[in-house]
Amino acid sequence: MSDKPRTAPTFPFLLPDIHVVTLRGRDARAFAQAQFMNDVDALVPGAWHWSGWLTPKGRVIALFALVRCDTDSFYVVLLDADPVAFVAALQRFIFRSKVELAAATGLVASGTWSMPSDGGGHVARIDGEAVQLDLGAAAHPRILCMGPAAAAPVVDSEQLARWRSVDLGFGLPRLPTDQAGTWTPQQLSLDRLRAFSVRKGCYPGQEIVARTHFLGQARRGLVALHGAAAASAGDDVAQDGQTIGRLVSVASEVQLAVLPLERPDLPLSVGASPVVAVPLSDGLAR
């Protein structure tokens, strides 16, 4: 992710890989607390945090921003996951709870390169159905907006590619379908985003996540790389001729890989391309 200033467009642009699922009802909070990996009880109305849904073996199925719109309603802002499939999978766990889940097909996501006019950080700006989240930091101010599809923003492939590179530069993994259900929160370094809890009550995969944390067994984590823009998620990362990890997310400027946290200081490569490790940027913890 480059820190060089760029001319920011004055218009919002479409983010087609981000979708909204609504979660409403008297038992919505308790349902989210039992299913999602972050502490929903600590989330006050009008605030948001990173969270996710795990397999029973503690692998990340979906990563999202969870917005508490009011006491009994939430927006699940899905990164990359199919909202219809996500809703169908979650529906199996509702049983007799008073919860309504739905893919919000009337809402679309867009981005702007600007600072929030008020709030920011973990505070969402909520105006009816429209919601804005601060997804930036001082070096890369930006806002994620969810609003009515009737006012759909423009498609801009250059800005979309830049947005994805900034995501990865912050250490926010963007998981294609074939990477879902593969990695633990610790392997994706989601502690950097404060995206999971090891102390709240049970949720799918909680035992494995907590054991890994308290026994100090997290030996792999996210590493940002430069030089493999032509590669694909799932490609091997090698060092001294030996495979030591895999790419998780790929963008034009930054690639994210899960690699050993302790490794020799030797050159890395992806296929025939030499790559270099670069520091992840801070600023997206919520």
From TrEMBL:
Superkingdom, taxonomy of origin: Bacteria
Record GO biological process: iron-sulfur cluster assembly
Keyword Transit peptide: yes
Keywords linked to the UniProt accession: Transit peptide
Name of the protein in its database record: Folate-binding protein YgfZ
Lineage, opening ranks: Bacteria, Pseudomonadati, Pseudomonadota, Gammaproteobacteria, Lysobacterales
Gene3D superfamilies assigned to the protein according to its UniProt record, in alphabetical order: 2.40.30.160, Probable tRNA modification gtpase trme, domain 1
Membrane-crossing residue ranges in chain numbering: none
Organism annotation: Luteimonas deserti
